[in-house]
Amino acid sequence: MDEQTSDLLLALVLGYHARTIIESRLSVIRQRAKIVKELLETERTYLHSISSLKNCLSQLRENRLLSQEQIYSIFSNIGNIFTCNSTLLNELEIRVSQWTDDNTIGDIFVQWAPAFKTYTTYCQNYDAAIASLRRCKQQHPKFEAFLKEFSNETKQTLQTLLITPVQRIPRYIMLLQELLKKTSKNHQDYFLLAKSMTDLQEITEKVNQSISHAENVSKVVTVQNQLESTDALPEGVQTIITAGRYFIREGLVKIICSLDSRNHRNHYKKRWFVLFNNSLLSCSVRFKEPKDAKDPKDTKVFKKSELILFSSTVLLKNIEDIGVVKNAFHLITPEKSFQVQCFTLDEKNSWMKDIEHFSSDSVKKVASLGAILSTRTPNGPDTAIKWSPTNELKEDNRLTAQIINTESKRNKNKEYTVYVINITRGHIQYSITRRYREFDELKKKVSFFLSLNIYCPQYKHLLLF
Question: How confident is the model at residue 436 (pLDDT cuts 50, 70, 90)?
Fold first, then answer.
């Protein structure tokens, strides 16, 4: 091959390579322009839907088909969202009308990301809005007739339109992510797109958290409604609905009642635990049979219940597996002691972790109860006992328990005697009562995880509070 032919072949190869690079870059430019156009078109469609919602709201107010409270319960702050996205659409229209590949779009969303926080209120209210819509349709025939006419005009139902704001921010993230893939790292829009995606993802996460929190707050009302009657609540408690309380988790557990001498026969009661951020509700439960297919299959009715407040002293202790007792832990409160058995190890670990976390400083996970009897005093029941279960407890957290006297009590025409015990922990003081028979049964109840001489009442009660 002569030199002239060689140069010609090289020119052809280089030309082909150059054309390939140019075509690839042009393809990316066209794809970026296509995504930007889709972003604009979807924003127009979205704003049209929001406008339909706003018009529906206005007509309901003019015709007075619903009260102001009912209207807000359905539409929430849709007016604020309409104002926000109207301005956003104007900016997108101007930018896209002058679009070249050197232009940026990410800066617009970086600028508008803080304004999208207005979606939090709407998304929090969405489930309640759908429930309110259904109730209003059942209660107001004129409103239901209006909705049919509205659907014929807009070709969409009100319920379909109401979900569009919930879906919009995830849609932004998806389109911006596609645009980022088609943008060179050297392009000035690359950093702006990445920043806008991060900002929007943070808002989405906060929205999801607020929705979850709102659901957990409303779950407290659900639990209240599952109580068979007000008599099912502990004495002195009128309602479990209080400011700041929200639902964490719930589930079925076993409360250990007694064991035989070989730790074989396990007598227990099934209880439904409902954990809130500041308390634990323990209920006896029955499952109501559904009346028809519309009723939920797992309708629970709570009968007698006990409420453990985390503001009082609560101790948590792991119980090692032995005999028939597996996946158990000890929950100790000023009023009562629970030996809780879960169905799986994962459930046990999860319950202990959540109770410890949400009770924060009030719950102390005790490594061993053996140290309770480490200091014995021969001076009788009036001698104070100082207790430090682990080396991790500070001096001001030491617990002192003292039996001060006895009292007679009556329950269902039966009279019995109890010890009155003063408990002091740091600056906290309170009194508890324990029956004689609780001391008599204590040896059986704890022998499966402690080998202790607990025949002296002044020591026994420490394992009971």
Answer: low
